[in-house]
From TrEMBL:
GO terms for molecular function: ATP binding; protein serine/threonine kinase activity. It comes from Acacia crassicarpa. This is non-specific serine/threonine protein kinase. Coiled coil: none annotated. It comes from the Eukaryota.
Length: 452
């Protein structure tokens, strides 16, 4: 989905870190949809007018330079060209507003050996499209921030390339390869398997942890500003990490409630008060998180132009179902084929509604969201264990009855098979839990019991 960027009416005059003009919005909400296809010139000038838009205080720069980790690798363009076999279409794994993303293999210092030797590493290489809607400014922001901010739920930047030659500027970013691509790829069915209910909850919690870290756990607060399903990437174990810090910016300094800034983000995800006034707080990210929770529940995009008119805006469509318990099941992603826990889905929708409260102050902090998601996950697991236990007891009873009647009957054999399946499953789960010390989120679904 395309990002937008437009200047808006001025904000609080007490705020000093942005030279926001008092002009009315240059682009309306609807027009922002066409930004990606508008002329580059007008887009660029809007970016340029935002010259103090992020990471702009002296202290913040000091913080970045003090903390700057030296482990970002500087790659040459020829090295990355080789790594992607000349930016081969066969290695293209995605494309966004910044440019194309390729899979590649680079040589990096062997961390284990510590003897200066090199080893191969699979990476994702993003190449800035000089004619695209995002630019050099986002590239710098990404390198500056991801060079110093490290967290298990933020994607790792391995290095970058910045070369200028007679063909123009080359700006590339090299990330750890996230083998299960983006949450958007899964929800839109670009990958064959459907995400189970429990893995959706776990992904939501991981992403919430990433945002919580940015908002609450660093010396400086960072507001992500572009939280959406395509910026939630999944590794081989389906751990979720946030990517794309091009639009991230420093939150308000102490004593200030918000920062006034030009508006950037993606249509369908940005908080209404931010879009209308340019007043940015961490609660704008919380709103976007609420939108993503609804996408996880429904399997639908925030805005989908290919649906009938009354279904195009997810939040408007969902409103009709969420308030009526009899209709609630119609909201849930049909690709789950009933393999979810309704109570858990209702609790998730309640949490989403909290994140989508009109007044930013009424929305929860991300640390609270992490906690609530933890209890929803625990509740879902115990619900599953109870239904599994109930199914096993019921079958044991049946077995006893049947063996009393006629041990040779075909029905008894069927019952035996059923019980065996349940026990096999229990054994399998317990083995997995023992070996990996946690549930196999990817393959596990509470509804499994019901399908046999
Ligand atoms: N580190 C990575 N590992 C694996 N795949 C990636 C990685 N980074 C990006 N991708 C893939 O490339 C796609 C494009 O990513 P990109 O961040 O450039 O754009 P986007 O987030 O889809 O859109 P926008 O630019 O509007 O934010 C992603 O949806 C994902 O499938
Ligand atoms: Mg992205």
């Amino acid at each position: 989905m395309k990002c937008f960027h437009f200047s808006n009416a001025g904000g609080d005059p007490r705020e000093v870190d942005d030279s926001v003009t008092s002009k009315a919005s240059k682009l309306s909400w609807a027009r922002s949809l066409s930004v990606a296809s508008s002329t580059l010139g007008s887009r660029r000038s809007e970016f340029d007018s935002d010259s103090k838009d992020f990471s702009d205080s002296v202290e913040f720069h000091k913080f970045l330079s003090q903390k700057r980790a030296n482990d970002l690798r500087v790659f040459s363009f020829s090295e990355l060209k080789l790594a992607t076999r000349g930016f081969s279409r066969a290695l293209l794994i995605g494309e966004g507003g910044f440019g194309c993303v390729y899979k590649g293999v680079v040589r990096v210092p062997n961390g284990h050996a510590n003897d200066g030797s090199l080893s191969d590493m699979d990476v994702a290489i993003k190449q800035l499209n000089r004619n695209g809607p995002q630019g050099h400014r986002e590239w710098i922001n990404e390198v500056n921030l991801l060079g110093v901010i490290k967290h298990p739920n933020l994607v790792k930047l391995v290095g970058y390339c910045a070369e200028d030659d007679e063909r123009g500027i080359q700006r590339l970013l090299v990330y750890e390869l996230m083998r299960n691509k983006s949450l958007e790829d899964h929800l839109l069915g670009r990958v064959p398997s459907t995400l189970t209910w429990i893995s959706r909850l776990k992904i939501a919690q991981d992403a919430a942890r990433g945002l919580g870290y940015l908002h609450e756990e660093m010396d400086f607060q960072l507001i992500f500003r572009d939280f959406k399903t395509s910026n939630v990437l999944l590794d081989e174990d389906f751990n979720a990490k946030l990517s794309d810090f091009g639009f991230a910016r420093q939150g308000p300094s102490e004593g200030f409630g918000h920062v006034s800034t030009s508006v950037v983000g993606t249509v369908g995800y940005a908080a209404p008060e931010y879009v209308h006034t340019g007043k940015l707080t961490a609660k704008s990210d919380v709103w976007s998180f609420g939108v993503v929770l609804y996408e996880l529940i429904t399997g639908r995009r925030a805005v989908e132009r290919n649906l009938p008119r009354n279904e195009q805006k997810l939040l408007e469509w969902a409103r009709h179902y969420v308030s009526d318990p009899r209709k609630f099941h119609l909201l849930v992603d049909p690709r789950l084929e009933g393999e979810y826990c309704i109570k858990s889905a209702q609790k998730l929708a309640t949490l989403a509604n909290k994140c989508l409260m009109k007044h930013p102050k009424c929305r929860p902090k991300m640390s609270e969201v992490v906690e609530i998601l933890g209890s929803i996950i625990d509740g879902t697991i115990s619900e599953f264990q109870c239904s599994l236990q109930a199914a096993v007891s019921e079958e044991e009873e049946k077995e006893e009855k049947l063996s009393e009647e006629d041990t040779e009957s075909g029905t008894a054999k069927q019952g035996n098979n059923y019980l065996k399946k349940v026990l096999d499953f229990r054994e399998m789960m317990s083995l997995r839990n023992k070996s990996i010390r946690r549930l196999d989120w990817k393959n596990w679904a509470p509804g499994l019991v019901r399908t046999w």
